């Protein structure tokens, strides 16, 4: 491969570590060579592949839908109500409908909703440099997967178009679904019972369950991703761990704490420092943050 | 493609329905054409891809391992003890060890254990005609997946070698796993808590969760597979539903009831008759059952 495969990345040590890693594990003559079926990369989503401030897109969707259903709420009320209020909101807005109906609702919302600060559709709030990284890995024979705390069904309504990932490689938190024979044939009803909250130590468990192989690349941005990066780092192969650090208040946001769940970054940044993981300094390492306007 | 792609199948209407279906959905000029990313096929495992009589291989493994652990049991005791005894056995033999340790135990057992009637290693108890079908579908651009009631980790210890399926496409029942930092680094401990029993109406839910797309081919052999076939049949594309009917007492077994869980075949055979699904009559349709001896 020739030419700059990561044009949205500045020529820093960060970019160099990524390009050098991809070259080494795909070079049959390198001691770091990894056979193609074992080239697995896992990514957190919110704050790692797209903007999660000032609130998760999925939460904005849920608040809008609650209002439509005649049960308006607000971010302030949710903060005051804690996890119980959040679960009530998810039950109201994500359950009791079929998977097909939910998919249509999510797609409709994404087509009209705009990010409050950047006034762009949420799918355009992805990070251009990370899109380039996904492409580089894909061209290098990797299978890229998402392991996010967000809802699987919500993500899958847009991730195929935006990231080019097939639905089976997009894994998040999930509720139970119930199979039933409806008027139009069999259908799956989304239930209020949450089965997996895909964060923290659950991420390696989900990776084992959904992939069944140890990744060699992992990227995250908060302590909720630490276990996933640790699990990856323990592979017998050479690995690459990436921590997206939000340092860019001008072009995006500067913060060290997840906006809703409150995960910090102390542990993951300490681990990165101890273990020489690659910290992506958004302000310094990226020449562009979001994709250019079409 | 030329030549007989299904040499283990006799020249019957069953074989013809499979060959004709595969040709139609891959022919760009056919009204039945299906784009490659939507060519998803799902298979039950026990009794559909390999022999499940006189007892599931995984149960034979568990009984052998219980004896090794100083807690011998028998099929008779398990039948008498019902589901409670079965769960106790699974807890004893499948929990409290790391996923890596379990994988090694399973591989060791498979290398030495023999089927009680055929005296062959269990991985050789697969159905040769179904191996040919998996290959035909793979060459036709399908992604083939397994959705079985068996344990995911047990299956994955041999399905890559035998069926050529990557681990992420082999989905069964699963217990929870717990992430912890062990002496040798991070590890996943298999817990006794069963999270999903992947049978009956759970199969479409698991398909939604693990694939996120509707299959167009489904194969099963008991009423525990009915929901999976119904879910597949409701695809907007042309679909193929296959029911393996065990009619061959001489070369395999003749039965209409699952050996352990007791699922029958009344409902799935009735649905097949109503909906013109393809019933595979093992004695009539297959010229060979298990692979030839090496």
Concise structural overview:
The structure is a homodimer of 294-residue chains. Chain A is an alpha/beta fold and 294 residues long.
Write up this protein.
- The structure is a homodimer of 294-residue chains.
- The first copy, chain A, is an alpha/beta fold and 294 residues long.
- Chain A contains eleven helices and seven strands.
- Chain A has helices at 13-25, 57-68, 75-94, 99-112, 128-139, 152-156, 159-163, 202-210, 226-233, 266-275, 282-285, and strands at residues 40-43, 143-151, 170-182, 185-196, 217-220, 240-245, 278-281.
- Chain A has a seven-stranded mixed sheet with strand order 4-3-2-1-5-6-7, with helices on both faces.
- In chain A, helix 2 (57-68) crosses helix 3.
- Chains A and B meet through strand 3, strand 4, helix 8 and helix 9 of A and strand 3, strand 4, helix 8 and helix 9 of B.
Number of separate helices of chain A: 11
Alpha-carbon distance between the termini of chain A?
27 Å
* Low-confidence regions of chain A: none
Largest interface: A-B, 32 and 32 residues
Oligomer designation: homodimer
Strand arrangement across the biggest beta sheet of chain A: 4-3-2-1-5-6-7
What is the mean predicted local confidence, pLDDT of chain A?
A: 95
Number of E strands of chain A: 7
Largest sheet of chain A: 7 strands, mixed
Anisotropy-based shape of chain A? globular
Which helices and strands, and how do they pair?
The structure is a homodimer of 294-residue chains.
Chain A: H1 13-25, E1 40-43, H2 57-68, H3 75-94, H4 99-112, H5 128-139, E2 143-151, H6 152-156, H7 159-163, E3 170-182, E4 185-196, H8 202-210, E5 217-220, H9 226-233, E6 240-245, H10 266-275, E7 278-281, H11 282-285
Parallel strand pairs in A: 1-2, 1-5, 2-3, 5-6, 6-7
Antiparallel strand pairs in A: 3-4
């Amino acid at each position: 491969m020739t030419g700059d495969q990561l044009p949205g990345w500045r020529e820093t040590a960060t970019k160099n570590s990524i390009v050098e890693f991809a070259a080494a594990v795909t070079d049959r003559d390198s001691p770091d060579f990894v056979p193609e079926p074992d080239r697995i990369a896992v990514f957190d989503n919110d704050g790692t592949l797209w903007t999660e401030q000032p609130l998760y897109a999925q939460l904005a969707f849920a608040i809008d839908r609650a209002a439509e259903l005649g049960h308006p709420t607000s971010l302030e009320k949710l903060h005051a109500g804690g996890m119980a209020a959040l679960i009530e909101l998810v039950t109201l807005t994500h359950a009791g409908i079929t998977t097909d109906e939910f998919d249509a609702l999510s797609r409709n919302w994404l087509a009209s909703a705009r990010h409050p600060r950047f006034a762009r559709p949420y799918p355009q709030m992805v990070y251009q440099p990370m899109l380039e990284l996904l492409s580089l890995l894909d061209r290098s024979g990797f299978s890229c997967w998402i392991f996010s705390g967000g809802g699987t069904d919500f993500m899958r309504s847009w991730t195929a178009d935006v990231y080019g990932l097939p639905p089976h490689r997009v894994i998040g938190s999930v509720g139970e679904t119930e199979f039933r024979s409806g008027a139009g044939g069999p259908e799956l009803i989304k239930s209020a019972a949450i089965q997996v909250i895909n964060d923290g130590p659950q991420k390696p468990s989900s990776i084992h369950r959904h992939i069944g192989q140890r990744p060699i690349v992992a990227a995250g941005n908060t302590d909720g991703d630490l276990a996933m990066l640790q699990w990856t780092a323990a592979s017998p192969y050479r690995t690459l761990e990436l921590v997206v650090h939000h340092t860019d208040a001008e072009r995006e946001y500067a913060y060290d704490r997840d906006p809703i769940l409150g995960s910090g970054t102390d542990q993951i940044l300490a681990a990165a420092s101890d273990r020489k993981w690659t910290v992506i300094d958004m302000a310094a390492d990226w020449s562009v943050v979001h994709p250019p306007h079409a």
